[in-house]
Specification:
The chain is α/β, with parallel strands linked by helices. It has three domains: about 280 residues, ABC transporter transmembrane region fold; about 170 residues, Rossmann fold (3-Layer(aba) Sandwich); about 80 residues, Rossmann fold (3-Layer(aba) Sandwich), CATH 3.40.50.300. The chain is about 65% helix and about 10% strand. The protein is built from 21 helices and ten strands. The strands form two sheets. A six-stranded mixed beta sheet has the order 6-7-8-3-9-10, with helices on both faces. Strand 4 and strand 5 form a beta hairpin. Helix 2 runs parallel beside helix 5 and helix 7 crosses helix 9. It is elongated, with a radius of gyration of 36 Å.
Length: about 600
């Protein structure tokens, strides 16, 4: 369950978020914001202006009864003035909507790009921490819409405030008591709505983890990768019931909040209506006593009703704007998170050889007590092919992820061509590594793009190079029979041509070979390939490796045997190192693993 929001009711936190929000909005498009402010001010003055015109028109009608000959000339100026104000008000409303639509698009682009840019800067560990997943989930939840609604509600509040002031001036001239009655009721209403807004925010904040669960259940029940097994196991009713229970809990919480809102708002509305009619009765008494004109009565009745509506709208828009700052504070919290890994000095080498060295490296995952790697030391020479083998959980994948600096070692250091990788520019380091991960990503893109993504800046527009890579990795025949060849859209989300797991893995291998790097890391590279394809692939690999230093992680002995050297990991330590034949002769852990493999595959002893 999510922890309560930090200092959720703190005025200083609220003010800080509001100021930050205004700065972000201002930096998005200054000219549009200034235009919106001018239009907002003008729109706020229209109701009072029209009220005064109506008052003047009514009084002019009464005066015209005594001078019928000049009646039209008396009424005409008020009619023309009313027409001009009404036309300007109508056009300004349309112009306001036009400006807001443009601004919403700008803020949507700006905020979402800011979220993506900041997420791209975070460490891998950030996305593996449940607490941080809650933070990014809250930050992503309609972030741009919260900014848009904050601006819209703030401008609405500003418009209503100008209207309230101008309408009060008109009403006070007729009945001064109006300020002593309506203002206190508005303050009570504002306080009540703000408490509701905070309660709503608190509920949503505490729901974050459960919201992620609902998204997970929806994904399981609607994603093509999981649907077959869900159907086979008959899990749909169980998962749907879990989803229903969470959403039912949300519904019950919302219902309680709706009831509180209805009760409180109804009480305030009743008192406000009674107060207004009490004031209207006093105005009628004064009219009958001859202290006010019929125009005064008409204006008070019309403007009074309008003021009550305006004040209610102002209260709601103000509390909504303040409420939006609470949600925007979630984005501010996310953007304030900095990468935990030490920033590199930005060093770049003039040339690279692919010399990798571990010196007493230890590493423990966050939240885990037992280290995954303990005092690991070894060196891989430039151009050497080294395989790491061991049981699941021995630390093989962790080891290569440390080389790519996805994590920082707890102790020791990793050298790349004799330089501590913490001193190298991270972008530069990643440019030197081609990495084939265990979990293949089936990119929804063309066959050509899927390969070119390995070095997209160089290959995305160079189809000849892409075809050469496909030829080198044996993919050309598979791609040639696709409906549109290299332009065939792969995947089922946007295209109609899908691949088998093994074919996707071949594409991923081509993507790794496409990268102009000095180090190639293959983490379980042939797990979805048949033996024939694997044999052909590694024949191609030997031919086109071009002197790259290569690290293999595999459970297949047919794969690791091609390595110049094999290192055996056990419980986070390197326990053996040598060639396949040397390790078989040692009769140690590698030999025992190989013997199990040999018996499973029913291979003769000399294989």
């Amino acid at each position: 369950m999510a922890k309560p929001p930090p200092s959720g009711e703190s005025f200083s936190r609220l003010l800080d978020s509001a100021v930050w929000t205004v700065k972000e909005v201002w930096s998005t498009n200054k000219s549009l914001l200034v235009s919106l402010a001018i239009v907002t001010l003008a729109r706020g003055l229209f109701p009072a202006s029209l009220a005064l015109v109506i008052r003047g028109l009514i009084n002019a009608v009464m005066a015209a009864e005594n001078n019928l000959a000049e009646a039209f000339s008396i009424l005409l100026p008020w009619l023309v003035l009313g027409l001009i104000i009404t036309v300007i008000e109508a056009v300004s409303s349309l112009f306001y909507r036009f400006l807001m639509q443009r601004f919403f698009d700008d803020i949507d682009l700006s905020i979402n790009c800011k979220i993506l840019d900041h997420a791209a800067q975070q460490d891998i560990a950030f996305f593996e921490n449940p607490r941080f997943q809650d933070i990014i989930h809250r930050a992503q939840q309609n972030a741009a819409n919260h900014f848009s609604r904050f601006l819209a509600d703030t401008l609405t509040s500003a418009t209503q405030f100008v209207q309230i002031v101008s309408l009060l001036v008109v009403l006070i001239a007729v009945e001064p008591l109006v300020i002593a009655v309506l203002i206190p009721l508005s303050i009570i209403h504002l306080r009540f709505q703000w408490l509701l807004a905070k309660r709503h925010y608190f509920d949503e904040y505490m729901r974050t983890t459960k919201r992620r669960w609902t998204r997970y259940f929806i994904s399981l029940l609607t994603t093509r990768m999981s649907v077959p097994e869900i159907k086979l196991l008959g899990l749909a009713p169980l998962l749907t019931n879990k989803f229903r229970n969470i959403m039912g809990e949300f519904r019950d919480q919302n219902r309680s909040r709706y009831q509180s809102s209805f009760r409180g708002s109804s009480i305030i509305a009743v008192f406000a209506t009674i107060a207004f009619y009490a004031l209207l009765a006093n105005v009628l008494r004064r009219f009958l006593a001859g202290a006010l004109t019929i125009g005064d009565v008409a204006v008070f009745a019309t403007v009074g009703l309008r003021l009550r509506s305006v004040m209610e709208t102002a209260v709601l828009s103000t509390t909504n704007a303040l409420g939006e700052t609470l949600y925007i504070s979630n984005l501010k919290e996310f953007l304030s998170i900095k990468p935990q890994m030490k920033k590199a000095s930005g060093l770049k080498l003039s040339s690279t050889k692919g010399d990798i060295e571990f010196r007493n490296v230890s590493f423990t995952y966050p939240g885990v007590n037992k280290p995954v790697l303990s005092e690991v030391s070894f060196r891989i020479m430039p151009g050497e092919t080294v395989a790491f083998v061991g049981k699941n959980g021995a630390g093989k994948s962790t080891l290569v992820k440390l080389i790519a600096r996805f994590y920082e070692p707890d102790h020791g250091c990793i050298l790349y061509d004799g330089i501590d990788i913490r001193e190298l520019s991270l972008d530069y380091l990643h440019r030197q590594i081609a990495f084939l991960f265990q979990g293949i990503i089936p990119y929804e893109a063309t066959a050509s793009e899927n390969i070119a993504y390995g070095d997209w800046a160089r290959l995305l527009t160079d189809i000849d190079q892409v075809k050469q890579i496909a030829n080198n990795t044996g993919l050309d025949e598979m791609i040639d029979i696709m409906p549109q060849g290299y332009n065939t859209m792969l995947g089922r989300k946007f295209g109609e041509y899908d691949l088998s797991n093994g074919q996707w893995q071949q594409i991923a291998l081509a993507r790794a070979f496409a990268r102009d790097s000095s180090l190639l890391i293959l983490d379980e590279p042939t797990s979805n390939l048949d033996a024939t394809t694997e044999y052909e692939l590694f024949n191609q690999f030997r031919k086109f490796a071009n002197g790259q230093t290569t690290i293999l992680i595999s459970h297949r002995f047919s794969t690791v045997r091609i390595a110049d050297r094999i290192m055996v990991l056990n419980k986070g330590r390197i326990v053996e190192s040598g060639t396949h034949n040397e390790l078989i002769g040692n009769k140690g852990p590698y030999s025992r693993l190989y013997e199990i493999h040999r018996k499973q595959m029913d291979l003769p002893p000399d294989v």
